[in-house]
Amino acid sequence: MEKKINQVSKSQKRDEMIKSAYDIFYKNGFHATGVDAIVDSTGISKRTLYKHFTSKEGLIIAAVNYYHEIMYRAIADYIEKSTLDQPVDKALLIFDFLAKLVDAGNLYGCFAMNAKTEYAHKAVEIEAACDVHTNALKGLIEKYLSEAKIKESESLAIQIMMLFEGAILRSKGTKNSLPIKLAKSAAKIICSQ
């Protein structure tokens, strides 16, 4: 029983470190955030941090995976709760979800995209974790396009993802949701062709 409690405690500590690191990385960036900042925010020692994660990169991968879990679930739930009937309209709800985030003040962009950009061609494992998120979103979009019996649904899902990612970057730069709304309009046009 005591061993089980220790495992839960270790798991909770690990989760707390991931959530804290996630918040700091999201606000400050990955290269700009040192391990000391994470240690200071969590109150744990470097030794404990490295016991759970062999490197800062390992912690970043865990934070990307955490982001993917919460964000993918939030987007999928948002779409599923929609009363829209048309599968294409459901696929394009990712833009509405993003616009709501930006309008609510989340101007940090996509955590996975931020990590991929900062570690492009430098850390294969980080890039792979980021790709899991992007591919899952593409798969979600493709699922609805397939339900709509759209030909070339995979290619179209990639195009929609390109518009989505571009909208994320533009809204981050402009600090408003207009680029997202414009990207959704463009996505509607390519879906209707």
UniProtKB/TrEMBL annotation:
Q: Does the keyword DNA-binding apply?
A: yes
Source domain of life is Bacteria
Task: Give the matching InterPro entries.
Answer: Homeodomain-like_sf (IPR009057), HTH_TetR (IPR001647), Tet_transcr_reg_TetR-rel_C_sf (IPR036271), YxaF_TetR_C (IPR054156)
Does the keyword DNA-binding belong to this entry?
yes
DNA-binding span(s):
34-53
PROSITE patterns documented for this protein: HTH_TETR_2
Q: List keywords of the entry alphabetically.
A: DNA-binding, Transcription, Transcription regulation
Q: Which GO terms describe its molecular function?
A: DNA binding
- Report the Pfam families cross-referenced here: TetR_C_13_2, TetR_N
Residue ranges of the HTH tetR-type domain?
Answer: 11-71
* Protein name as annotated: TetR/AcrR family transcriptional regulator
Protein's organism:
Flavobacterium cheongpyeongense
Source taxonomy: Bacteria, Pseudomonadati, Bacteroidota, Flavobacteriia, Flavobacteriales
